[in-house]
Specification:
five-stranded antiparallel β-sheet; 15 strands; 17 helices; five-stranded mixed β-sheet; about 15% strand; alpha/beta
């Protein structure tokens, strides 16, 4: 910690006395500079303790002199007495008190060189401590980076070293690694999508956040309650280099794993299930069978985001890129559907066949249809069931749908809710409350209230398969 004016005055051997600006004694001293110039502005960088005997100062020149020192960012003034002045000029003291410049009276017995040595020792000690801290931090971060925890470990270690929180974003601006749950909450409030190469400092509440691009892709966010000092910035720069390297290596490994998964998917599709399953179990673990097979269409960014979100549950879901689709196989389809709804921009098709190749063909067809109709989810059975609409007279079907849905539409037109759309989404999700609520961006309790209200208005039992089929048919006719 840098030596402050207060700490300097506490060194009894110097016998310094505070005569003005006591409120500013906690300012750090960057260096000491003795001068008798009345305007040393051009020779100062700011933060210095200026030493003078006041050869050219008196009550008429002191006020302007003090104001020039403040403008130059001087930390304080040490005024030597017993030579040209018996006491610090009164005007100088009054002006310094008025504008908050600390003034220390230096007795005749204390040479300026003694003050310089005291500050020099403190500066040297600070620089040594900073060097040691940086060296130790670099060693800790490097050991962590080459260890088993990789980038995630570096993030947590960096957070401890700077006494703050750390978040790593991927190239799309999504959270990739966080040092803690609190860091995740902070990271969700930050937008780094428009961050260009370099560093930006922003505030988040009462915290200062340093945003810095990584050398490869993505960005690092470091939040602290106090601004980072030079040592902290050095440590962060070290972490940036190590994270960039770790993430680049991770990207290469992920790319290789992605190609392996696609190859395994080809084996499943070709009917070589035993071989493919043996490799999947060895590489990442496999969910118990039988599997539901899902195909996901949508923008590449959405499919990539879903792929990344499924990575932590790789042992419970097999997933792979396949041309313009993402394919997933699992014993729990809801796990994938929930994540897809959270990611957004996904159109999911679900196969119903027992054999993997047939189920995958069905899922692909349902996914393409879901994308063309701009709906989030379509089961193959529902997709195939639309052939029933071709057997109905269009006018009769429209009349049936109008009569059946009339109570809901009358209610919705009054502005008291979105019952028809809520019912449609709920049926498309086979009555799954959480998934339907996520797609509608409402709370599941709100959805339950809407479905209950719809049942009352329709005077129908929505638990009845026949009623659900009739409502589904009506909603398809009016789509």
């Amino acid at each position: 910690m840098a030596l402050t004016l207060r700490a300097l005055t506490e060194q009894r051997s110097l016998a310094l006395r505070v005569v003005a600006g006591e409120a500013g004694l906690d300012r750090p001293i960057g260096w000491v500079h003795p001068t008798e110039l009345t305007d040393p502005h051009a020779f100062l960088e700011g933060g210095e303790l200026l030493l003078t005997t006041g050869l050219a100062l008196d009550d008429t020149t002191s006020e302007a002199y003090v104001r020039r020192l403040v403008e130059a960012g001087t930390a304080g003034l040490g005024f030597g007495v017993g030579l040209s002045h018996e006491h610090v000029p009164r005007t100088l003291v009054e002006t310094a008190d008025e504008i908050g410049l600390p003034v220390l009276e230096v007795p005749r017995k204390t040479p300026f060189i003694a003050i310089t040595r005291a500050v020099s020792r403190a500066v040297a000690a600070d620089e040594y401590a900073a060097t040691v801290r940086i060296g130790r931090a670099q060693q800790e971060l490097t050991r962590t980076a080459v260890g088993k925890t990789g980038a995630a470990g570096v993030v947590r270690r960096l957070a401890r070293l700077i006494d703050g929180w750390v978040v790593v974003f991927d190239a799309a601006g999504h959270l990739r690694e966080v040092s803690s749950a609190a860091a995740r909450a902070h990271g969700e409030q930050l937008d780094v999508k428009d961050l260009r190469a370099g560093t930006r400092v922003v505030t988040l509440g009462e915290q200062e956040v340093v945003l810095q691009t990584l050398h490869t892709r993505g960005a690092l966010a470091v939040g602290t309650t106090e601004p980072l000092d030079s040592t902290g910035r050095h440590i962060v720069n070290t972490a940036v280099s190590l994270l960039s390297l770790a993430l680049e290596q991770d990207r290469a490994q992920r790319g290789a794993l992605s190609r392996l998964r696609t190859g395994l998917l080809d084996l499943f599709t070709d009917g070589q299930e035993a071989l493919a399953l043996d490799v999947v179990r060895t590489v990442q673990g496999a969910p118990p069978q039988p599997w539901a097979v899902l195909a996901v269409a949508g923008r590449p960014a959405a499919r990539t985001a879903l792929y990344d979100r499924l990575e932590p549950v790789a042992g419970q879901v097999f997933f792979a890129h396949s041309e313009s689709l993402l394919v997933a196989a699992t014993d729990d389809a809801d796990r994938v559907l929930t994540v897809a709804a959270e990611v957004g921009g996904c159109h999911v098709g679900v196969g119903d066949a027992t054999e993997f190749p047939a189920s995958l063909r069905q899922a692909r067809q349902a996914a393409e249809t879901a994308r063309s109709q701009d709906i989030p989810l379509l089961h193959y059975a529902d997709h195939a069931g639309r052939g029933l609409l071709n057997l109905l007279d269009p006018l009769a079907a429209q009349a049936f749908a109008h009569d059946l849905l009339h109570p809901l539409r009358t209610h919705d037109e009054s502005g008291r809710g979105e019952l028809e759309e809520s019912l449609r989404c709920w049926l498309e999700n086979h009555g799954h409350w959480d998934r339907a609520a996520t797609q509608l961006h409402i709370h599941r309790h709100t959805l339950r209230n809407r479905i209950t209200k719809a049942a009352e208005l329709l005077a129908q039992d929505l638990d009845s398969p026949g009623t659900r089929a009739e409502l589904w048919l009506a909603l398809q006719v009016t789509r």
